[in-house]
Amino acid sequence: xxxxxxxxxxxxxxxxxxxxxxxxxxxxxxxxxxxxxxxxxxxxxxxxxxxxxxxxxxxxxxxxxxxxxxxxxxxxxxxxxxxxxxxxxxxxxxxxxxxxxxxxxxxxxxxxxxxxxxxxxxxxxxxxxxxxxxxxxxxxxxxxxxxxxxxxxxxxxxxxxxxxxxxxxxxxxxxxxxxxxxxxxxxxxxxxxxxxxxxxxxxxxxxxxxxxxxxxxxxxxxxxxxxxxxxxxxxxxxxxxxxxxxxxxxxxxxxxxxxxxxxxxxxxxxxxxxxxxxxxxxxxxxxxxxxxxxxxxxxxxxxxxxxxxxxxxxxxxxxxxxxxxxxxxxxxxxxxxxxxxxxxxxxxxxxxxxxxxxxxxxxxxxxxxxxxxxxxxxxxxxxxxxxxxxxxxxxxxxxxxxxxxxxxxxxxxxxxxxxxxxxxxxxxxxxxxxxxxxxxxxxxxxxxxxxxx
Length: 453
Known about the structure:
The chain has 10 helices and 17 strands. With 453 residues, it is an alpha/beta fold. β9 (373-374) and β10 (377-382) form a beta hairpin.
């Protein structure tokens, strides 16, 4: 029996090698539609929302560095010159004694992101470094046990979820399946040469069994009702498959609390990946299954000092392309180490939201249409297919042209420019549509509404 158990464990650990062929920055083929009607209904609702926010906030926010990865000993990682790996790792773990976000204000976050036109949120409960942004019963490596322990809001996750529920957001929890701080993943007996577990499971099956138990208990803390109903469980760390840590059993129980909860076991094709998540990229072509591009507002997921932000225009152009290809767009924005969204980001998000307040009909509640792109023009359709929306993406640094041209999707009569509400009659020649833009439009992406012949 012991030999059979070891063989089964060995077979399970063949999965990560396969999973990694499904690279995190791409959308893979092989999507498997859920069979649970409640999950399908939740996915349809989520596809209506189109625009969300992904918040990375943790130890890495204190110095403003890349999240978690600097403690991983891989050849692409950079650390300060002259530092030792072990010394650096201990310094990083020590940030838990400094992280004290005394200005923690999730209500400000929710207000900012709601004004930005975002409709769903995903909050990082635990990244690969293992530091929990909630009050876990199974580790002291948590925001609730450090300098923030005496704050009445030390159980950060509760107040984040409550603030966003108050703004009618769909609620999502990010969770890393790998945990580099846990001794049953990176055991101190061995070196830590890479992102994977640092021992052979065949030699230490008891260690892995303890890790599975630990991971399941933490997932159940988050999804078991303590933090209310959750709409999306967004699992990162695709070198560990959800099946390896008992995700199906966790999901079965979680969906008793949160019926239809969407599972996103990133890059692991199968029944636990209810939508796919290309990172920092957009698929080359339209997809007819649920997917989401996760892209940062700055160059990093978490907060960094003096960030280079994308412009509001650039974010809107990305949103137009993603929705025309059938996806949702979750924008990465990191709170500061003190616990707020900084003003330069707020200003950009306000501009995005102002455009969506006028032109959001061309984004929200839409679905794909067969002719979805012609140069800088991206097309969406209403869910009943009776209305077509054309969005002219205006790149940074360019001025709005006097005319817009596209082929196919021929309007039946006048079109409405959502930016200012004016109706304009296009010129049609064969399959080519030419629209002369009225005077006075801002230099911004243009959204157009019409019915087709």
